Every structure is written in structure tokens, then in C-alpha cells.
From TrEMBL:
This is Putative Acylneuraminate cytidylyltransferase. CDD domains: CMP-NeuAc_Synthase (cd02513). Signal peptide: none annotated. Keywords: Nucleotidyltransferase, Transferase. Its EC number is 2.7.7.43. It comes from Psychrobacter arcticus (strain DSM 17307 / VKM B-2377 / 273-4). The gene is neuA2. One of its GO terms (molecular function) is N-acylneuraminate cytidylyltransferase activity. InterPro entries: CMP-NeuNAc_synthase, Cytidylyl_trans, Nucleotide-diphossugar_trans, PseF.
Length: 228
């Protein structure tokens, strides 16, 4: 079986109720559920939550909420992999035979069915443990700077001061949309950012972290621009 698991706890601090806050006319989580449904990849789309309101919203958009996430996996320190492992173990106990699991974040309004399908195909056609979304940094990370306690500026690596940007190796980062993985990789909590993973490359305009109110406003502007 191919299962989408959408983690969506209720205790978001920086943007309260972020998972179900209205984003361009719909609860944020609705975009992930709809993309999963449109992809046709999944036998089940499950939302893992500790929150009854989130559960009701998720079900209204077509997801299943067959269990409530335990409190020990619902605090600020709970990692994603243990949450996915919990969902897999629940499925196995219920007699299901999951094979591929896609962790799909509830706060990924730019996710599309096409990229979910691409991730599935990449995982199937390789020996990779995971397939997950990445995008490139807009600025060379080798020339990054930091502010010191005296509000001065320092380079992380001064050896790159005179190196041309085009001569530096391109760097990539997690796009934070979804993570296709094999059941054994999730159950053994295999590291995602490793040699056994294959990247699903996204253009930068389809990636936006949403952790602050400024992020939220920018994401809505970008989303509306893409729709136009």
C-alpha cells in the first residue's frame, strides 16, 4: 500500500492554528490533502493530529483521521520521523501492509500532484530509501556572513571572499514539502539527508517556508501571483 501521512499537531506557537488557518481562501492543510488526492498515488491519506478541530477540517477535505496522535509525540520537541513511524506501526497493527509512505507537510500550499507523482516514480525506479523535495539556494552559501555580538560582520569562510560566485559549487536545501520513503527506512529511522535519498528538484518560486507572519504574507502574494 502507498500511504500519505500528513503530520498536523495543534500546538503551533509562531503562527497559532497554522495548520487550519485560512490561506488564500482555504485552510492551509486543505492544499496538501487536495494535492494528495489529485495525484492518484495513494491508497490512503491519513492526517496524524492531536487536535479535534484539525481532525474535523481534515476529514471535510477528504482525508482520514483514524487515530489521534499521542501526547508524547505532540509537543514542540517531537520529530517528524517518530510521528511517521507511529502511523506506520498503527497501520500494521490494524492489518494493513504499507510499502511506501509519503510524509506530506500540512503547511505546503505550493505542493502539486505532479511533483508528488515525480517523487513516487523516482523512488520506485531507484534503490533509494527516500525521495524528497529540494531547491537551490539563491545566494552562494560559501560567501555567507554572520553578525558578531558587537554588530560587526564576519564571513563564515574568508577564503571565499575573492572567489567568483560562478566558481562556487551550487548548494541545495530541503524544500519542506514531502518525503516519500520505504517503510523499512521510516521504521529504522534512517536519516533522510543522506546518500540513500534521491532529490525531487523544485524551482525556487514553488518553495516558501511559512514560520512567521512575514513568511505568511509573502507566501500569499506568491501563491496569488502563480494562480494569475
Amino acid at each position: 500500500m502507498k500511504i500519505a501521512v500528513i503530520p498536523a499537531r495543534g500546538g503551533s506557537k509562531r503562527i497559532p492554528r497554522k495548520n487550519i488557518k485560512e490561506f488564500c481562501g482555504k485552510p492551509m492543510i486543505a492544499y496538501s490533502i487536495e494535492a494528495a488526492l489529485q495525484s492518484g498515488c495513494f491508497d490512503k491519506i491519513i492526517v496524524s493530529t492531536d487536535d479535534l478541530e484539525i481532525a474535523e477540517v481534515a476529514k471535510s477535505y477528504g482525508a482520514e483521521v483514524p487515530f489521534m496522535r499521542p501526547m508524547e509525540l505532540s509537543d514542540d520537541y517531537s520529530g517528524t520521523i517518530p510521528v511517521i513511524r507511529h502511523a506506520i506501526e498503527w497501520l500494521i497493527k490494524q492489518g494493513f501492509d504499507p510499502e511506501l509512505i509519503c510524509c506530506l507537510y500540512a503547511t505546503a500550499p505550493f505542493v502539486t500532484a505532479e511533483y508528488l507523482q515525480q517523487g513516487f516514480q523516482q523512488l520506485k525506479s531507484t534503490n533509494a530509501a527516500y525521495a524528497f523535495t529540494v531547491t537551490s539556494y539563491a545566494f552562494p552559501i560559501q560567501r555567507a556572513i554572520k553578525l558578531n555580538p558587537e554588530l560587526g560582520v564576519e564571513m563564515f569562510d574568508r577564503n571565499n571572499f575573492n572567489t567568483r560566485s560562478q566558481d562556487l559549487e551550487e548548494a541545495w536545501h530541503d524544500a519542506g514539502q514531502f518525503y516519500w520513503g520505504r517503510v523499512d527506512a521510516w521504521l529504522t529511522e534512517k536519516i533522510i539527508f543522506g546518500a540513500d535519498s534521491t532529490p525531487v528538484i523544485l524551482p525556487r518560486h514553488r518553495v516558501q517556508d511559512i514560520d512567521t507572519s512575514e513568511d505568511w504574507d509573502r507566501a500569499e502574494w506568491l501563491f496569488k501571483a502563480l494562480q494569475g
